[in-house]
Amino acid sequence: METNSEPRPKRRRTTQEFQNAVTGRATAREKSRYKYMDLSWIPATSVEVEWLFSKMKCMLGYLRKSMSKKTLEVILFLRMNWDLVTNEITTKAVRNAREEDIVDEEECDVIE
């Protein structure tokens, strides 16, 4: 048996294989890193944050746990920016919602 003192050369990747491997790892890291929204820019002890959590606690009781994120976001926005809401805007929103309900009912009738 011959003993070779030289180590075996490592398998070399092509440039494309190397780029694919690096890109794959970077993509995986980014996905895990951005799993949650970055809120580090909000000071944790600010009065606004405490006020926001207090408002949410009042709005989202145990009976409203099934409320969608979109609905909660809209309600919270309206509550915090109530000074921007006018009767005209409210009337338009109600009309649009009623029209959408009518269209939805018509679509259900067509399907059945």
Automatic annotation (TrEMBL):
<protein>
    <recommendedName>
        <fullName>HAT C-terminal dimerisation domain-containing protein</fullName>
    </recommendedName>
</protein>
<dbReference type="InterPro" id="IPR012337">
    <property type="entry name" value="RNaseH-like_sf"/>
</dbReference>
<feature type="region of interest" description="Disordered">
    <location>
        <begin position="1"/>
        <end position="24"/>
    </location>
</feature>
